[in-house]
């Protein structure tokens, strides 16, 4: 944990009260904890998407990477950013050449988050 003096140095304000420095330090700590929790959640999502994709790909080796990816996200409630990021990593470009990538990603987002949930 940062000391009061380290906080004052970081803020470049040696005249700030110890009470205010403590409050700022506690705020930093809370923010760091939230960021770490979010990172852990995102890490699990990343593992989950890739693990599901690899499992489907192994079972359905005759399916295209796009179809495997669509099956991976179907009904799993993955976020738009996660779908986009993993689509770029896992789906071969030849599988969607000539198609509008934004429309494809929107379709995958709808697959991941079924219609009845999108209407809420």
* Head-to-tail CA distance between termini: 43 Å
Order of helices and strands: HHHHHH
Main sheet specs: none
Category by helix and strand content? mainly alpha
**C-alpha Rg, in Å?**
22 Å
Average of per-residue pLDDT values = 89
Work out the helix count. 6
Topology of this structure?
Layout: H1 4-11, H2 18-59, H3 65-73, H4 80-90, H5 101-112, H6 115-118
Structure description:
It contains six helices and no strands. With 120 residues, it is mainly α. It has one domain. It is elongated and about 65 Å long.
Describe the structure concisely for a colleague.
The chain is mostly helical. 72% of the residues lie in helices and 0% in strands.
Which tags fit this structure?
single chain; 120 residues; mainly alpha; 6 helices
């Amino acid at each position: 944990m940062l000391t009061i003096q380290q906080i004052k140095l970081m803020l470049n304000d040696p005249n700030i009260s110890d009470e205010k420095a403590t409050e700022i330090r506690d705020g930093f700590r809370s923010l760091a904890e939230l960021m770490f929790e979010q990172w852990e959640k995102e890490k699990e999502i990343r593992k989950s998407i890739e693990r599901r994709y690899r499992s489907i790909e192994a079972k359905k080796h005759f399916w295209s990477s796009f179809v495997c990816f669509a099956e991976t996200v179907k009904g799993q409630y993955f976020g738009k950013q996660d779908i986009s990021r993993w689509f770029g990593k896992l789906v071969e470009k030849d599988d969607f050449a000539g198609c509008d990538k934004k429309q494809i990603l929107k379709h995958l987002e709808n697959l991941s988050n079924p219609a009845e949930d999108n209407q809420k």
